[in-house]
């Protein structure tokens, strides 16, 4: 397994003034034992990468287009993110699947574009509350995994984030048994499709991860880190989550 990973997704939040949060993180985590990534809005990628300089915290985008360039007003390509200083890009977040009608096929094409540009794709999956209550969570998420991951996925270029939609921004978190079941199933499917290398594909949990529940979540088998929304916006919330992951390694 590669290093464990904590990724912060700022979503549509953050202005220049918030770069001070990144400076604080950089001071606190000069030599982390886990990988740390922050994904700000596209407007801040370049400045965040610049202000981090040679520090070990990485910057990521929140989405990319499947094409490298062209007539796609409002979109940005994986190459552009790379040039701006990003090393990672989130693709297929449930908010994009809902707001922008992104399908598994589109998500897979975006992940392929990320790989081609030399970015690590953080591919998001997750069921709705209705699907969970109907007992379909495992089937839905397995289907998303099969259809959203490109053939060339490896432990080096791909991270999978399981984010149950009903846990995002709600303060509700699945039980550790539910997380263990999902992550165990995802790991088995990854190894079945990609072989032994897939044991190293990092599986993140996302959805209401906070300083007070992080340790419990990180103790679950096959949880290799977290994709954190709201609690990644302030270094005073994000740092204890990073500490919780560090104490597992
Ligand atoms: O969607 C998420 C991260 O991508 C999770 O968001 P919250 O941590 O705010 O629930």
From TrEMBL:
Its EC number is 5.3.1.1. The active site is at 93 (electrophile), 163 (proton acceptor). SUPFAM superfamilies: Triosephosphate isomerase (TIM) (SSF51351). Pathway: Carbohydrate degradation; glycolysis; D-glyceraldehyde 3-phosphate from glycerone phosphate: step 1/1; Carbohydrate biosynthesis; gluconeogenesis; Carbohydrate metabolism; erythritol degradation. Keywords: Cytoplasm, Gluconeogenesis, Glycolysis, Isomerase. InterPro entries: Aldolase_TIM (IPR013785), TIM_sf (IPR035990), TrioseP_Isoase_bac/euk (IPR022896), Triosephosphate_isomerase (IPR000652), Triosephosphate_isomerase_AS (IPR020861). It is found in: Cytoplasm. GO terms for molecular function: triose-phosphate isomerase activity. The keyword Aminoacyl-tRNA synthetase does not apply. Its main location: cytoplasm. Transmembrane segments: none annotated. GO terms for biological process: gluconeogenesis; glyceraldehyde-3-phosphate biosynthetic process; glycerol catabolic process; glycolytic process. Substrate binds at residues 9-11, 169, 208, 229-230. The keyword Cytoplasm applies. One of its GO terms (cellular component) is cytosol. NCBIfam families: tim. Homodimer. Involved in the gluconeogenesis. Catalyzes stereospecifically the conversion of dihydroxyacetone phosphate (DHAP) to D-glyceraldehyde-3-phosphate (G3P). This is Triosephosphate isomerase. The gene is tpiA.
